[in-house]
Amino acid sequence: MIPAEILEKIGKERHAYEKELMEFIRIPSVSADPKHANDVRKAAEWVLEKLQKMGFEGRSYETEGHPVIYAERCPYKDQQTLLIYGHYDVQPPDPVEAWKSPPFSPEIRDGYIYGRGATDDKGQFLTYLKAIEAILSESGEIPINVKFLVEGEEELGSINLVPFVKKHKKELEADAIAISDSAQFASGMPTICYGLRGITYLQLDVYGPAFDLHSGHYGGAVANPANVLVEILSRLMDNEGKILIPGFYDDVIDIEPWECKEMASLPYEEEAVKKHLCIKHLKPEKGYTPLECMKARPTLDINGIWGGYSGPGTKTIIPSKAGAKVSMRLVPDQDPEKITALFKEYVNSISPEGVTVQMTEFQKNHPVIVPRENDTIKAAFCAIQSGFGKTPVFIREGGSIGIVSDFKNVLGIENILLIGWGSPDDGAHSPNERFSLEDFNNGIKSAAALLYELKV
Amino acid sequence: MIPAEILEKIGKERHAYEKELMEFIRIPSVSADPKHANDVRKAAEWVLEKLQKMGFEGRSYETEGHPVIYAERCPYKDQQTLLIYGHYDVQPPDPVEAWKSPPFSPEIRDGYIYGRGATDDKGQFLTYLKAIEAILSESGEIPINVKFLVEGEEELGSINLVPFVKKHKKELEADAIAISDSAQFASGMPTICYGLRGITYLQLDVYGPAFDLHSGHYGGAVANPANVLVEILSRLMDNEGKILIPGFYDDVIDIEPWECKEMASLPYEEEAVKKHLCIKHLKPEKGYTPLECMKARPTLDINGIWGGYSGPGTKTIIPSKAGAKVSMRLVPDQDPEKITALFKEYVNSISPEGVTVQMTEFQKNHPVIVPRENDTIKAAFCAIQSGFGKTPVFIREGGSIGIVSDFKNVLGIENILLIGWGSPDDGAHSPNERFSLEDFNNGIKSAAALLYELKV
């Protein structure tokens, strides 16, 4: 049980913590954009410095991409070891014009801190640093051994973290892993997540004539790359949400009746969701509820599409090329490698003559399910009760945290705590991303409590 | 018959003419882009000044868009009157990075002048000014009455020219109209065009959630505007080139057997076209030759498409909105208003719940057929022989010149000469647009000869 004075201390320091989060958000560590490579590095250094100041031993490791931070403070031989994972990189901020305050100039409004990374994952990750700082200042030592693994490529699918984990299996040995990179089921409803969707993400480029053509001169006789792209993309999914790639559903484990029942019992307010998103209708896959679709069914989304003229007025051309980014969320037991291969095979089979279709693979993550009942989960359950003053619910998460399946497979650690402090309406990956100051502080309390609950 | 000394003069002055065309191209008169509104006006003034210097009386007329220039020199009561139409606006230059020399810094390379508008329509139109200048300098007076109508919105579908023509029917009275805004059938094969396709151009905007969403959190339950856009667009045309809008073909007059035969007899080199465009296959509508499709069949082309993330790497979002520009080339007797209505009705009927689909109408032009055999055509035939030293061929053109059907219907003038001096590989509407210096000079000679051939 966490000593009361530590919880008090965390309550008292809330403004200092908020200031520090703002400092962290101000570093525009957009991992996808090469222009921000230096900022990503700065964010890594910022994290390392914080850890070193608290007496953690570690360093920054170079990878083929952005650096990995590993640091540990392991004062005990006979205590539990918790590995805390987080990421210091963020999603691109586009469309920048949709932000009320600039994405990298954080602002506090109505009890929320706004900025890119506020919740995903700078704010949520920072709770562990602040929890340990509070514990150290009040008691002089942490109650268990703690290791930190912090990467800068989560938003790219943790491409270079997998080889790192394989290479550093010994250092990364732990009894449990804590990750706060998911969200509460709903605002004010703290959540333990026991499953994640996987993902595979590809780019399609359709090349036609060597240059844009006059659509009057050539229209009707030349394959238009934008028309062809649309034709290919339209054949990936039907209008009831069924994905048409042959073999796509072969390894999908359908949702168990008990899980459907459990999900249906959650206070999911469809009207509130529609109001928040400003849409009149949800459009779940035929035969499934919206919640089932968001948490436990595979998807296919066009994340971006482009080609030809998009300026004001008209331009009568056949564009020389067109492209799209397409991602598929995967559920157990779909294998991202297999799905990627099926996708490519299918697209090639439906690509017409007269154009060249190129496909580029980006991130690929396995879906994962973790245990729901054991001592580690119990510890997290109690810690969240201490921090939030509420009983957490259990749910699967629709997003992907690339490295989780590798932690399970490479490190052999089953006890993975997916305990997000944020809220689904925080706008992770959206403009005006935010983090509730209340959740931030309760998250710090829960993180601190977790260290005491895990103590044997 | 044109006096030999005028043809000689035109030959001698070729470098001066080329310099003047470069000056004209340097004015970036992109009518579609509001940023260039001032440049469009500058181009109008440039034209008017040239005409006034040659003793034409006229002025610039304000419209709701860009100005219209009207000027005349009518020394005769009992002579033919020729109305010369041209446009001083140009297509947007995008993608600018594809140009070898900047679009508005014209350059001469290997016998061609490169720059936006070189052929469409600055270069082709300028031939008439230079022809008249040469005639005036050699003989002191033009052989017939000449009127000029020059607009700055041809690339926008001549939106404001129609009311202008209706209002100025009296001034615009003429025996024939000459327009050099089409192209030769092939380089070195001067052409008289007797038909043009029409067009209707629309923009589709699909709106979904109020902001971009995390595709992990919401994917599967929310209609993705990019997926919906693709679904709608894919249902406009099948993969054999047949347009699926109900009623679309109702008024299409199929190509007559004699016309098919005539087209088939033209020296159309498919291999050369494919090589020029760097494509392996043409993709004509099923049942028609490429030439038939380019000249006399209706089309549906996506001219631009956009939505979501198109930067480097990945962004896992459901975009808040997506859009496309779509144009349909029309053939006799399709009515652009009717086709636009059918298009909108169909799109509305296939638009799913969960998104809002908005449609914006842009240019709409009627397809047109003009007479192939009469004295005016004979005059053009002889003039082209004088200018190019070759016998012209007859062909329909796949592009649209908005105002032609209005000239026919409003002014009641049937004798419309569509005599393009450029070449189909000049890259009108494409990067690296160009105009052969040889065609430019032969065009000036032909334009001058035309005035003598029309003399009664």
UniProtKB/TrEMBL annotation, chains A, B:
It comes from the Archaea. Coiled coil: none annotated. InterPro entries: Cyt/Met_Dipeptidase, Peptidase_M20, Peptidase_M20_dimer. The keyword Protease applies. GO terms for molecular function: metal ion binding; peptidase activity. It holds the Pfam family Peptidase_M20. Keywords: Hydrolase, Metal-binding, Protease. The keyword Metal-binding applies. GO terms for biological process: proteolysis. Residues 194-354 form the Peptidase M20 dimerisation domain. PANTHER family: BETA-ALA-HIS DIPEPTIDASE, SUCCINYL-DIAMINOPIMELATE DESUCCINYLASE. This is Peptidase. The lineage of its organism: Archaea, Methanobacteriati, Methanobacteriota, Stenosarchaea group, Methanomicrobia.
